[in-house]
Amino acid sequence: MNALKDTATVNEDDANLLVLIIDTNPLIWTKSAKSLSLKEALRHLLVFINAHLALKHDNEVAVIASHIGVSKFLYPIPNPSRLSENTDQAVDSNLYQRFKVVNDQVISNMKDLFEDVSTLNSYPDKASSMIAGALSMALCYTNRIMRADEIGHIKPRILIISISPDSPYQYISIMNCIFSAQKLGIPIDVCKVHSEETVFLKQAAHLTGGRYLKLQIPQGFLQFLMITFLPDRFTRNYQCLPGEEKVDFSASCFCHKKMIDIGFLSSIRTVFNLQI
Amino acid sequence: MPTAVTHFKTNIYECLEALPKPTLDQLYKEPATCLAIFRLLPPLARQLVMSLLFTQPISPVNLTQSDLRLWVKNEEEALAKFHEALDKLSKLSIMTTDSSGYIQINSSFRERFQDCLTGGGDHQSFGVSCERPAKDKPDIAFLDRHAMKQWEEILHFMVGTESTRQPSAAVLKVVTRAKLMKEGKDKQLMITNKGFQFLLQDVNTQVWAFLIQYLDIADELLHMNVVEVLNFFFMLGSLELGMDYSVEALTPTQKQLLDDLANFGLAYRRKKGSSRYYPTRLATTLTSGNSAVVSSAVSSSTSTTTGDDGATEQGFIIVETNYKLYAYTESKLQISVLRLFCELQTRFANMVYALITRDSVRKALKHGITANQIISYLTSHAHPQMKKQTPLLPPTVVDQIRLWEMERNRLVATECHLYKEFRNQGDYEMVLRHATNLGFVIWSNAKKRMFSVTEEGHEHVRNYIKKKIAQRKTNGGGEAGSGIGTPNNGSPSVR
Amino acid sequence: MSKQYKQTEEYIDVDDEIQNTAQQTGYSWEEEYKRSWDVLQEDEDGSLKRTVENLQHRMKRKKLFRDTSTIRRGIIRHMFLIIDLSEAMMEKDLRPSRLELTLSYAEQFILEYFDQNPISQLGIIVTKGGIAEKLTDLTGNPMDNIRVLKNKKNTDTDGEPSLQNSLQMARSTLIHVPAHGSREMLIIMGSLTTCDPGDIYDTIDSLVSENIRVSVVGLAAEVQICKLMCKKTKGTYGVVLNEAHFKDLLFEIIPPPPVSAAQNKAELVIMGFPSSVTDSMPSLCACHSKPTTSGYICARCNSKICDLPTDCPVCELTLVSSPHLARSYHHLFPIDNFVEVPWNSAFATHCFSCQMPFPNPTSTSLGARVAPDTSGRYKCNKCNQYFCIDCDVFVHEVIHNCPGCLATTSSH
């Protein structure tokens, strides 16, 4: 059960696809607003995305928002119709065109996401967000890009900006996504902005060869992102990146949804029970 | 396509490193230039710059080189890359170590690059678009055709196809300056060996070679400011294909530059004085490393939504293990280039079938093209289907082309002087020993009592022999006679 | 007497007559000759592109239909892989030879088996020259098995296989396996004969009474005794048509089999989930007594072990890591197949999970509107989202999660 080391087939000239999953649970972001609000964080994230695109001409990016009850693509979306309405002009001479396109779409789609409160009110579990759904969509998107690129030129990776705690209901789905990522060799990095540790995402980072980092200084969000999460798959092989090494591999019990370290395994349906 | 990327990168690198520090500081005042130069750096260097870019405002951070070294793994390869990165950064004066050992990032680079990433500032460095919409906007296919037509005209002129017009004065100056063509007997320009080699390179490298030569001329002959010229090049590289940009925002130097570049095919203007210009694919892929040519075989049905610049395939050649070559192209220029080193057999509507033979490759070798250039041409223009197999080209063909090149190296000619007809073995050996001690002997044959000596050695050996003859005369009376050895002047000896 | 009983019970269907009466009568050479090249037809423009795309589409869909009811399955499996090393395996009808192909597929099978069933065990038995030989005992380490297969000495062929001997050998180990695990055998037979010391029907009866499931993959032709054995023990029997079919048949055994009613008592097995630890100073591990800096701490007795999954050498608690178990969960909660959407309800423009645009009816050069055979849209019935064929294959074979159900609220 070794964590995956990136194989030597990553070349210096490969393009990189960064799939950024942003946890936008509004309730928890308001809690964290004293140290880092969502608006501030989004500004830092946009500069980070621009930095990723600046590294190489053919780097690509995709952004998915993981909200309460719904998870959606923020970039790229198929019909960006609102673009010309909201912005002053289609071309800004002070901003590199590619940056502008991405930034505008992310901002306008994020606005749409927050304006639509119908799912928010109807969804029961407001403590966590749909990380499993966002991860599955991210994996499908990378699958599509890798199939379209026949020469193996583009190398994907996933970065999750997480703020909500684990949801035990999503355990199986998240583990399925982790194993798929492990099989495809896609590292999953996690940056934990607020609240307590998420064991599932820590396991995700460990099993797929990514880094897990808890944000210590919220105002320095961008700097943390630049140092830890900007290096692409080629540069990572040569750098010592910060992150956590100790991983807790406990499972969650099926009936009480608590984390346990000794349990009973049913041979047929793997139901765990707390040892009484 | 690693070969293409490294070629043009090294070209620009050398050009930039040769600039003095104040010029580089001037260059870094434009964010588009910062972005373009940033993309030329090696990967670890880029990461170092990004990690340190935003540190200053919050609290000044004083790091030394050994601090930075902690970020890198303790393996040989990693450390080698780290040192290479630091070296390149300091040569371009982006990141230097100051007198107290602390790492400093060039302040104007830092500010402008931050502006580039955040969209701040007022520099308008990414091209001002036109306010009035254009009446008929040319579409991207038209721009591509226009660009290729212009560029190929230049190349056709070099190859000497009859039906081309004389290109503009700037082109002629560049071409002669770069020694791609030279004045022949009848005051016509003839293509040189270097020109042939130039033809075999891919379009990005060719465009950059042109631009760098233009930079040289700009400085000396046209008295243009080097900084403005480079800024314009890099700004062109950051523009969006298919958008129109206004001419008003350019300086007079840049306007003149635009005229010349339009002749090369990098930009399109409807007429000479029109107020808007459209960059073509040759311009937008200047700094990207993508191919500047999109072959008609590539359809856009599989492209992602991230823009048209993503089309990358320009390959159209398939090479088989039986030395047959199939080129899916209709461009006359490419066919002329192919004719340089293979024999065309049949020509179809969309394809040309050729054969690589010993004679055709030898013909190319005589013109000064090397086997490596032929091989890199075939590799960079290989069809995407070929790219799926490893190794890319059949090893038999590659090895055979190299062998044909080595055949020409079987004979090496050296000018020398031949000494023969020694009276006796003793004399022969004495002179031979002396010449060998001085290191001048190229060849010797004890049976025939002959040896050959280099040009420089000839004087020494002749003097030595004369001395010995004089000695003998004074010592031995009349016995020695003439000719310890007669030198045979100036005949080349072939080994 | 027992033989008579058997004959009336199971009439051996020699000529497949019972099967065939429902279909056309006669022999296969009497049927109309199928020409495989007739499948390719040009469309109006003279291009084969659409036909090729349709063929690819249909092939992808064929792989997807599988059983998706949530039935009980055995997660902890104990399987013996029995490989026939008789002279019939040197035939070259499968490239490069039956034996080499079997060995390479067996390696891939072992890797995939442990990937999908991480807490299971596998052992290898070979049979040649009338005897059976055990190469490896039941083990949870795939590398042991693969190393043994790569060793050339173990894979010489000789003589005739012995079905009964190999069954007996495997059975003698499997009866000691505790009842919570499933007991299985997979036989790869290239020969049409077997050389047995006793009555194989007795052996088959004892296998049935001990709930051991036997599956056979035949390389030559259908053999009645194998068919009977598999039917009685509720295993599967398949005969390969070509190399690709061989691989498919082998890999069908990898997902855990459904559990029969007889085995339905759900026993609970106690297991521990250790946490990993890294020290700066090395300490001895409990399994090999080697000094190591990193390892796992047993949840019950706190002794350090090197690798998972294993039994703790001190307190004998089975230790697994939760990711190991989680690998097999998707077999228990399979997702439903997606339904193909016909053209009249094909309104979605893009795939939900990868944003790829769906094909629309295209116009040919003659101006007629022609639609490809399928609309390319597949719908999940639970969340009503539309997916493309690539996502469909990817979701069902790799991720085992429906992105639509997880990313929208309609399913909860």
Automatic annotation (TrEMBL), chain A:
Recite the UniProt keywords alphabetically.
DNA damage, DNA repair, Metal-binding, Nucleus, Transcription, Transcription regulation, Zinc, Zinc-finger
Q: Which residues cross the membrane?
A: none
Question: Which GO CC annotations does the UniProt entry carry?
Answer: transcription factor TFIIH core complex; transcription factor TFIIH holo complex
Can you tell which superkingdom this protein's organism belongs to? Eukaryota
**GO process annotations (BP):** nucleotide-excision repair; regulation of DNA-templated transcription
- The reply on keyword Zinc-finger is yes
Molecular-function GO terms, alphabetical: zinc ion binding
Localization: Nucleus
Subunit structure and binding partners: Component of the 7-subunit TFIIH core complex composed of XPB/SSL2, XPD/RAD3, SSL1, TFB1, TFB2, TFB4 and TFB5, which is active in NER. The core complex associates with the 3-subunit CTD-kinase module TFIIK composed of CCL1, KIN28 and TFB3 to form the 10-subunit holoenzyme (holo-TFIIH) active in transcription.
Q: Which family does it belong to?
A: Belongs to the TFB4 family.
Function, as annotated: Component of the general transcription and DNA repair factor IIH (TFIIH) core complex, which is involved in general and transcription-coupled nucleotide excision repair (NER) of damaged DNA and, when complexed to TFIIK, in RNA transcription by RNA polymerase II. In NER, TFIIH acts by opening DNA around the lesion to allow the excision of the damaged oligonucleotide and its replacement by a new DNA fragment. In transcription, TFIIH has an essential role in transcription initiation.
Name of the protein in question:
General transcription and DNA repair factor IIH subunit TFB4
This protein's species is: Rhizophagus irregularis (strain DAOM 181602 / DAOM 197198 / MUCL 43194)
UniProtKB/TrEMBL annotation, chain B:
A GO molecular function for this record? double-stranded DNA binding
Chief place where the protein resides: nucleus
One GO location term (cellular component): transcription factor TFIIH holo complex
**Is this entry keyworded Nucleus?**
yes
Give the Pfam families listed for this entry. Answer: Tfb2, Tfb2_C
Q: Name one GO biological process term.
A: transcription by RNA polymerase II
What InterPro entries would the database entry show?
Tfb2_C, TFIIH_p52/Tfb2
Q: Where in the cell is it found?
A: Nucleus
Gene3D superfamilies named among the record's database cross-references: 3.30.70.2610
Bias-annotated ranges (Gly residues): 475-484
Query: Where do the segments described as Disordered lie?
Result: 469-495
Sorted keywords for this record are: DNA damage, DNA repair, Nucleus, Transcription, Transcription regulation
Q: Does the keyword Nucleus apply?
A: yes
Report domain Transcription factor Tfb2 C-terminal positions: 399-466
Regions of biased composition (Polar residues) lie at 485-495
Source organism's superkingdom? Eukaryota
The UniProt similarity line reads: Belongs to the TFB2 family.
Question: Which purpose does this protein serve, as stated in its record?
Answer: Component of the general transcription and DNA repair factor IIH (TFIIH) core complex which is involved in general and transcription-coupled nucleotide excision repair (NER) of damaged DNA.
Against PANTHER family, the record matches this protein to: GENERAL TRANSCRIPTION FACTOR IIH SUBUNIT 4, TFIIH, POLYPEPTIDE 4
Q: What is this protein called?
A: RNA polymerase II transcription factor B subunit 2
Automatic annotation (TrEMBL), chain C:
Q: What does this protein do?
A: Component of the general transcription and DNA repair factor IIH (TFIIH) core complex, which is involved in general and transcription-coupled nucleotide excision repair (NER) of damaged DNA and, when complexed to TFIIK, in RNA transcription by RNA polymerase II.
Molecular functions (GO terms): zinc ion binding
Record-given protein name: General transcription and DNA repair factor IIH
Subcellular localization, per the record? Nucleus
| Domain named VWFA: residues | 78-228
Q: Which family does it belong to?
A: Belongs to the GTF2H2 family.
Which terms in the GO cellular component ontology are assigned? transcription factor TFIIH core complex; transcription factor TFIIH holo complex
SMART domains given in the database record: C1_4 (SM01047), VWA (SM00327)
What keyword terms does UniProt attach to this protein?
DNA damage, DNA repair, Metal-binding, Nucleus, Transcription, Transcription regulation, Zinc, Zinc-finger
| Zn finger region (C4-type) | 298-315
* GO BP terms: DNA-templated transcription; nucleotide-excision repair; regulation of transcription by RNA polymerase II
| Pfam families listed in its UniProt record | C1_4 (PF07975), Ssl1 (PF04056)
InterPro entries according to UniProt: C1-like_sf, Ssl1-like, TFIIH_C1-like_dom, TFIIH_SSL1/p44, VWF_A, vWFA_dom_sf, Znf_C2H2_type, Znf_RING/FYVE/PHD
